[in-house]
Amino acid sequence: MPLPSSGPLSSSQVATEFGVSQVDISLENLGTKLDTPITAGDPVTLPDDFYGQGGSVPTVTTSAPTSVTSTSMTLNGNVTNQGASSVTNRGFYFGTNANYASNTKTQVGSGTGTYTLAKTGLTAGTTYYITAYAINTQGEARGSTVSQGTTGGTATSGSAMRYGTTDNLSIANRIISPSTEEPTTGIRLTHSSTFTMNIWLKVGWTAALNSQGRHQFLWGVSANAANPNYSTNVYNNNWRLYYDEHLNRLNISFLGLQSNGSNSYKQNFWWLHKTGAGNAAQQTGLGSTYWSNTNRGDVNDNDFSMLTITYNGSMSTSNVKCYWNGNNIGAAYYSSGQNSGTPVADTDQVRLQALLGTAYGPNNVLTGTGDQTAGYFGGNGNTYIDQYSLWDSALSATAVANLFNEGAGGSISTTEQPEGLIVYYNMNSNYQTASPKSFGPVWPTSNGEFYISGSSDFGSGTNTVDG
Question: Which of 117, 137, 156, 214 could be bridged to 429 by S-S, CB 3.0 to 4.6 A?
């Protein structure tokens, strides 16, 4: 058993812990760890930083399953370091819940090194979650949670619906992937990154949005940590794409801090009612009427539009572009972007993702990290989002048109991760979890779970791109 974290300490306890004879134990130098000298016969109370209190748990990793079929797969784990003492129990949590604690725990021996577990009798077309664990005398360590779907089965098309409310500061119905689920460091975007963001939307906000919050946020990625200058994580590497109903603008911006701690931003926008050949009013099909659930512009058969932002390192019109159903909607308003200062390009902090809401919290309204406070400005009507992807380059017009796929979408492979794809979520039934309500990524296959809160829900049938 481990050494106690407090109370009396004996030579026999130390001998047992280290597997040696009691005669080989001397505590004469322990006084250097204590505030008062040791007197013979007196019990010794350990300080908090002594070995028995601060010993380490093992280090264990979860690898992608192999030999995947419609009814079976092989789980793979690796204990790379035993920690403070020998590993007495190692194995996997396995099941259909994104939360490892809700799945079945199975031991696969002990000790360090790689280990496997064959699982059979599984359900075809079902997503399973695997978490490797290892235990020593200091406690249990767990690797990342990896998701893997079995082949076959009948997966149905899915989407996510953000439930609308007239309380624009409410986060009760948010849809976020917290920083603890960061799927890859590839989402740690800065103002100088190069990327493409692609989503499909079935608009639910109404023409009354202007008096009920004004803004409908569509997508965001942000560092999680609260900014020391604010009550939340605002101005901490916040990427955001949002619609401003008051001005009928589609805005793209980055909020950060300069090296001296002052605010900084990079941004640009498109007037959606700008007329003329090749401009937004024509390219989107919105005309001169503002964007809402009664004027969705050009849509596919299920009333979805595909919205794509390509960004090539700056907010200039040559480097930031917006596409609607694969059509370039014309130049953004500011030729060189609207810029204030130079944000620090921070890729060290973990990121969270948000859909149909902010990736940061409202300052002076809530207090805490992005994981705790993100998700406001969710709109005043039920909006559906589907087939979200993020790429590590500014895709060409041809590549964007291929994503549109004549209105059918679904062109991203689910069997082999395409080159340059950072994350992809198709939200289909085989990537959904009922409790807690969430959906995982197609790519990459580990982490990245989005959690659906409150009255928000999954969409199906005609509330999906291709259902």
Answer: 156
pLDDT digits (tens, 9 = 90+) for 354-403: 999 999 999 999 999 999 999 999 999 999 999 999 999 999 999 999 99
Our CA angle for 355, 356, 358, nearest 5°, is 80
Over residues 237-263, the mean pLDDT reads 97
* C-alpha pair distances (Å), 27 with each of 18, 32, 134: 14, 10, 31
Average pLDDT, the chain: 91
Cβ neighbors of 419 (< 8 A, separation 6 or more) are none
Ordered DSSP codes for 157-195: P-EEEEPP-S-TT--TT-EEE-GGG---GGG---TT-EE
344 alpha carbon, distance to own chain's centre: 22
Q: Could you identify the residue written with the tokens 């589907």? A: 386
Structure tokens given for 163: 């439930």
Please give the model's pTM, rounded to 2 decimal places: 0.76
Residue 33 has pLDDT above 50, yes or no: no
E strands, 392-454, in order: 421-425, 432-433, 438-439, 450-452
Which residues 6+ apart lie within 8 Å of 220 measured at CB?
238, 239, 240, 241, 353, 354, 357, 358, 359, 360, 374
Give all strands (DSSP E) within 414-456, no chain letters: 421-425, 432-433, 438-439, 450-452
Q: Sign of dihedral through CA atoms 165, 168, 173, 177? A: positive
Q: What confidence tier does 209 reach under pLDDT thresholds 50, 70, 90?
A: very high
Under the banding of pLDDT at 50, 70 and 90, the label for residue 227 is very high
For residue 212, the 8-state DSSP code is T
Contact between 94 and 119 under an 8 Å Cβ cutoff? The reply is yes
pLDDT at 152: 78
> Does residue 436 have a cis peptide bond before it, meaning omega lies within 30 degrees of 0?
yes
Question: How many C-beta atoms surround the C-beta of residue 277 within 10 A?
Answer: 7
Report the alpha-carbon distance of residue 14 to residue 17 in Å, rounded: 5
Mean pLDDT of 264-269: 98
* Contact (CB, 8 A) for 66 and 37: no
CA distance 57 to 134: 8
Whose CA is closest to 315, among 272, 254, 264? 254
pLDDT for the residue 48: 45
H or E element in which residue 52 lies: helix 51-54
Residue 185: Cβ within 10 Å count = 11
